[in-house]
Amino acid sequence: MITRTVFSAIGLDMLPDRVRLLQLKCQGELLSIHEAAQAEVKGKGKEGMGLLDALRKVLSGRKLKGNHVMAALPGHMVTTIPIRFSLKEGEGIEQAILREAHNYLSFPLEKGVIDYLNLPLSDQRSSKAALLIASKREDIVNCLDLFKQAGLDASVIEPRYCSLFRTIQWARQGEPLKDQFIFSMEENLTMLMVIVDEQILVVREVAWGVNTIREKVGKALGLSGKKVDRILQQYGVDPGNPQDFSQEKAASFLLDDRELRQVISEVLSPILEDLCQEIQKVLSYCVSLVQQRVIDRALLLGEGARIRFLDRFVQQRTGIQVSTWPGVSILNELAEVPAFFEVALGLTLRGMKNRLPGRPAACPGGA
Q: Could you tell me the pTM of the whole model?
């Protein structure tokens, strides 16, 4: 008996500087990658021709099945704000959220696409809370038009953090996701997210990432490219053990022990202290929302997970236990999902959830 092969929709992750594409295929119990690719967004017109050129490039030469797309919007097109409110007499939650949205959005409601997530509050509170999710309608329309020009048909557009959360849920294969802090450090963006009671509580994006660290280290040492990456991956940001700085290793970079120590203490530490302060701010806000709950664990994803000792640095500065993302190994093949494709994977899983075991939870935000 021949088993029919089912293909997922194309998961399209859009960032300000690049687009990533992923498509899965399922044959019986075998789930594998059909296509995976990425392309850089060049030029200043990142909402226009630059993005369209990147879409065409990432699609070029790919043996994709169909043109059905599920896309994640870049963060600058999505406004995400936790809000508190009380219901007026005869008022429903959606009416109250729309009423409150006037106080938070920089554009009129009639020109936006609005969604929300309910947030848990302490039992002692009489007020309610929600995570307001909004985008300008013109941004959604422009994206849909770009997809059409690239020959794609989009049925879902959602925030990147919803897709990332879906992937994390899926990878746990039914194991409950305990309350924790999640931070994904990419090339030029760091996403901070808090999960409480199996749902997103707070989201914040910081407009810098691993490239900022690379540039600082490279400028300080007069190095670039792979040599900087080797320093970050082999020496890291908090060596601790002096043996990590052997003269033999230092010589391979044409540097001495003193120079490497100086880079770590004077260049990297201040940058990462800023990250830890952002983490502390988000955690403090969570405590104000959900009293008598402690977020004492964190998960590090993205390219930042490759920086040696970054997990230990954050753990020492914030007091929360940090573990690095092990990757997605649920696919029944030797090759795992490519690094940094977690958001694109979450999009494909949304499209495959009715065909695969271990159904991931749905997340609002789709347009």
A: 0.85
